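Shipment paperwork, digital attachment
Item: protein structure file
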Amino acid sequence: MAYNKPIPRQGQHTKPFWDGAKEGKLMLPRCRSCNRVHWYPRLICPFCHSTDLEWIEGSGEGYIHTYAVQHRAFGGWSEEVPYVTAFIDLKEGDRMMTVLRGVDATKPEEIKIGAPVKVEFEEANEDTHIPFWRVVEE
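Attachment content:
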C-alpha cells in the first residue's frame, strides 16, 4: 500500500537527517560547543546558541516520555484512528514526537511511560523515509 500521509518538507539544514533515514540510521544534530543533542534540526543550538553543529548517528533507542491516543485525524491518518502519538526521550538527550508502533490504541492502559522503544523507518517515497518508534521488550 502506498504511503498516503503528509510528507515533511526537506531542506538543506535537514539533509543529513533524511539521508540517514534512507539508510535506516537516526541522524541527530549535536552542538560542538556544549555537546548536547537537540531535536528538531536547526541552525543554532537551542541551549547555548552556538552555530558550531555536527550530525551524529544516534542509537535509535529511547523511552516513552508521554503519549496520547488520537481519535480524530486528517489526511491519511484518518484511516488509522485510533492511533498513539508519543514523545520519546532519546538516549542521546532531548525528545522526538512520533506515532508509536507496536501498541494497541484501544488498550492505552497497557502502554507504559518509560517503556523502551526503537526507531524504524517507513518509506514514504524514494527520497523520504519517515521515522516511527516501536515498543520493544525489555
